[in-house]
């Protein structure tokens, strides 16, 4: 699954993590300010923003630094272990990571835009100061400029990711078909190569992209939420605490994550079992197309009974999982207002500050709720991984009986 696309996967991912950590340390240890020597100032932007921030000297210096780090890493791996898909697996992954970073910065810019825009609306509605139509439309034009860049980058990224996922599928297809003589006897072998390889690549990419986005969003918005906590002095039932918004976001999200994991703990095994009984039923039907000795009514009835039994168990488990998930997410929609209730009632913040807090609070919460939002997809990925792992185990010489025992263990 990974060997076909990445050079020496374990060593590759370990080196990527270490190189990333080193690059981040160097950036904050002086690399950010070093851009000033090249004429690229690294000072942070305060106040109102517009689309020009994305090609400001501060951003251009980060783009240059990031590209240099990626090229050094890719060049080292190309010399150490050439791989036919290294351009896609290394450079392609780096480009996707950069896109995730860029989209998070767009969210930060929009959050910063919220302040002056909603304060302008509040001033106009309360008539506390004179607001012209030109000022109002100027703020909307600023948002349109940021949104246009976000949409353009988003569309191009999705186009690139489509090709990235297909290249990964092609790599797995080449790898597995080269060992077809060893794999053909595994149940559902054709489906695993044709469908599972595609689903694995797209699912891993989607989950990985969402995870990176959650981490980057967390790092980008936690400082924002810390600064905005100065406008909020207490929490309901708790009273005065340091950084109340940060504390509330972390505790609420962690409680939700643990809750979702507990009520959904049986789903991965059931999903894997579902794919297995479906594969057995499908295989018998396919064999029956060419041989009268297969697909007789009693055999099909028994196989379909296993399909029905597993689906009903899956439906039952998904029912109480979805009840818990929906209740939590619906409560989550009003949770920030509950937290901000005393501050809003006391009139201690403006409309602009309120919207900035709500947006930043939501971004931090969603980052901590990665498992909640992705649990169903993770369940599907675990099922796909177990099926493809049987391929790799066969290629590596692991006894078939060990594979079957592991699969049967997932059903108990």
End-to-end Cα distance, whole Å, is 26 Å
The helix-and-strand class reads mainly alpha
How big a fraction of the residues is strand? under 5%
Range of helix content: over 70%
Keywords summarizing the entry:
globular, mainly alpha, about 80% helix
Question: What does this molecule look like?
Answer:
Helix 1 (9-34) packs antiparallel against helix 2 (57-80), helix 7 (244-263) packs parallel to helix 10 and helix 8 crosses helix 12. Helices cover 80% and strands 1% of the residues. Mean pLDDT is 80; it is low at 401-412. The two termini are 26 Å apart. The protein contains 12 helices and 2 strands, in the order H-H-H-H-H-H-E-E-H-H-H-H-H-H. It has helices spanning 9-34, 57-80, 86-126, 133-177, 180-183, 189-228, 244-263, 267-290, 297-345, 351-368, 370-395, 400-411; strands at 234-235, 239-240. By secondary structure, the chain is mainly α. Strands 1-2 form a two-stranded antiparallel ribbon. Strand 1 and strand 2 form a beta hairpin.
Tell me briefly what this model is.
The chain is mainly α. Helix content is 80%, strand content 1%. α2 runs antiparallel to α3 and α3 (86-126) runs antiparallel to α10.
List the topology elements.
Layout lengths: L8 H26 L22 H24 L5 H41 L6 H45 L2 H4 L5 H40 L5 E2 L3 E2 L3 H20 L3 H24 L6 H49 L5 H18 L1 H26 L4 H12 L1
Helix pairs in contact: 1-2, 2-3, 3-4, 3-6, 3-10, 4-6, 6-10, 6-11, 7-9, 7-10, 7-11, 8-9, 8-11, 8-12
